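Q: What does the predicted 3D structure of Aminoglycoside phosphotransferase domain-containing protein look like?
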Amino acid sequence: MIDEPYPLRPQQRALLARWLPDATVLADLGWGLVETTVLDVASSQGRCIVKAGGRDDHHIGRELRAHREWVRPWVATGRAPQLLFGDDAEKLLVTRYLPGTLVEGTGAQHDPEVYRQAGSLLAAFHGQASLFDEQWNDRLRRRVVRHLALPHRIDPEVVRRVRAELSAWPDGGARVVPTHGDWQPRNWLIDDGVVRIIDFGRADLRPAADDFVRLARQDFARDPALEAAFLDGYGSDPREPEEWRRALVAEAVGTAVWAYGVGDAEFEQLGHRLLLELYRETA
């Protein structure tokens, strides 16, 4: 049974004792910034990943939905982990361990072929479903307003300009598809040249371009060849200019506010830099 020092609730420990009674922890993979516990464990089921959310966690439910509705085609080809157990109420899931090395921080993060594969995988993921969300734009605006109401260190003039822009954003809906929500090299594995995907805690139905945002702010900005390879794998470019602008603003505000809230100064500075770039362009 998985015991202290891992911050699991009694109900979560009881479920794990039933699912993986002989589990032993090999490594703690958590970031320490959010309330999600992530453990690499060995058991009679094989090597597994355990994810347990805190009481206010919203990621486990999203991840379980993704595994149940969208991830199976990748699992069938070994490109994503298989869900073994899950409980929405207790915010707990277990997947099979997926072999590979994180792309982030390795030479693979600079390899166009990795991005070509990632683009192809994403196109297949997006292509599973498409529907019109009649309230998408309204919720996006409310999300940015909600973030700006939280404690942050965004420059007041930038805040003024964001609020002014928000007032001109369109109401109504947008076409949405299954999205990963954190599509970037820290959630890609490389194993003998094959790209695999992990961490579906932000998966949801969104405009397809939303899965381009985190790549655009870092890897594409660093090397245009990576963007070209990604688009070659994806097969098209879904970034309609006005919708893309709104996605970038929402991401920059969310980054600066969230990072300040969890005390990640380096990530917070990225959010501030993105905002300055966005509003310098329209100065």
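A (community wiki): The structure tokens above were generated from the sequence. The chain has two domains: 10-96, 102-281. The radius of gyration is 19 Å.
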